[in-house]
Design goal:
Blueprint (H helix, E strand, L loop, with lengths): L2 E9 L2 H18 L5 E8 L2 E8 L2 H17 L4 E10 L7
Antiparallel strand pairs: 1-3, 1-4, 2-3
Length: about 90
């Protein structure tokens, strides 16, 4: 069953959000090659929701180290981050 992580970010400024959005779009496909879905949704000038879907929990866990490293490298631009994760009852992409 697919395993999903949802990240909710609040940035310190709109500029920081712009920079991190561009960074994610450029690097996420390479940094998370085993993800079956990557979504970056800018919800306001200073907030975003990022969703990643993995084929299973083991693959998800392998990606967690890369995620921690990535966030640590930009922590000065993030005001707050909230995470949710779990098995997906439905993960459909057409």
């Amino acid at each position: 069953m697919s395993y999903v992580r949802m990240n909710y970010f609040e940035y310190i400024s709109e500029k920081a959000g712009d920079e991190l959005e561009a960074h994610y779009i450029k690097n996420a496909p390479t940094n998370f090659p085993d993800a079956t879905v990557l979504v970056f949704l800018r919800t306001s000038p200073t907030t975003a929701s990022l969703t990643s879907v993995y084929p299973d929990k083991d693959t998800f866990e392998k990606a967690a180290q890369q995620r921690k490293k990535g966030i640590a490298g930009v922590a000065d631009k993030i005001k707050n981050v909230r995470l949710e994760e779990g098995e997906a009852s439905l993960a459909l992409m057409r």
